[in-house]
């Protein structure tokens, strides 16, 4: 006779035993799929998944098991015939490679031993041999349950970066996500996937995929999503960056100054370089939106005419009366007038001049030389600030820091803590190489003489900031906030808007 007591546990490398609270949640009535509650829950899950992957990028949920998530990653980034390098460490690494082959990829296996982890030096050596960059993606598994191999994804990412090879780094984190550290952005992972049934201790059947920083294509996808959520007007803000000479000696010296901090966090500094933030791709993606606004510069007259042809109004951010005149002559429809009180980057077209005047004084200066609608921004945190800006000639106002504590805001937890502490703000170039206002912290105090070199310093410090944010360290991340951020309240965005209305 067999006597059993208690619950039966499934002791295999597959689905984990689900906690009682998960089992109880499965007995709740199903939500109306068309309800706001369903949309809100889905949005919150996607945000939480990105936090779990430790990425600023997007996450996606598929009604599929891990094999379905494999296929989702492959089909969205590869074309038939693309060469894929599989880093062998067990059956699941090989299985992902087989899925790629079935979808038409040219698969090469970097032979390994199921009794040990992937050796980053071997990965680096193979990539250095690929001088023509035929390899388009690298597939690795963080923990391969078939062999028990645990692979050092951070070290592999460093090996890939050392070669300068452009292949995408793709990681299977099915057996590891939620069980051990996974720092997608800090480790240089481009695409990662996982499933619901292991570390997340939920029923099988959901596959998760996370992708890296926002590109033109991702902007287009966000706009599609936004259109599905509202029939109201939509706006897109783009950076207008033009390459200018930077002091490379100062940039090198700053990198050396930051090395000890990066080493303490176990990361390598990024590659300081110029890029235009995919301006042309974003202009194409934004075609037809209601408003396109620019920061750090103004589009030329020809480009503005092209944007107008798609039915879009063009607004330019200005911080001086001279910028306002240039923008007017280029054909913009409105000006976003940013005063010195604003949080985050100054929208100034040059980083070398004097800081912008205070908002009310700037509105008067701009109003005297141009006859365009003005949108006031910088330090507006309450109804009195809105009224003062409108009285000074603004047609509308734009608030930013007032919303940082709203539940809808993507403000990180260490940033929220700093906002609640209500410290002083200051201007700094330490994080990005461009003047920006943030809550004063140890990093700003330690690096008061960072060079003017944007986006070079932004790329240089990105891994350091990502690691600090993941560690919850508000002393080493940019805490952008305007001078009146202390008036921000932890209220839903709609309530904040209602409190600002005059």
Secondary structure layout:
Blueprint: H1 20-25, H2 36-53, E1 59-62, H3 66-77, E2 83-87, H4 91-102, E3 106-110, H5 120-129, E4 135-141, E5 143-144, E6 149-150, H6 153-163, E7 168-172, E8 191-195, E9 207-211, H7 216-229, E10 235-239, H8 248-265, H9 279-285, E11 291-295, H10 301-309, E12 313-318, H11 321-330, E13 334-338, E14 344-345, H12 359-369, E15 374-377, H13 383-391, E16 396-398, H14 413-421, E17 425-428, E18 436-439, H15 442-446, H16 456-470, H17 493-500
List keywords for this structure.
17 helices, 502 residues
In short:
This protein is of the alpha/beta class. The chain has helices spanning 20-25, 36-53, 66-77, 91-102, 120-129, 153-163, 216-229, 248-265, 279-285, 301-309, 321-330, 359-369, 383-391, 413-421, 442-446, 456-470, 493-500, and strands at residues 59-62, 83-87, 106-110, 135-141, 143-144, 149-150, 168-172, 191-195, 207-211, 235-239, 291-295, 313-318, 334-338, 344-345, 374-377, 396-398, 425-428, 436-439.
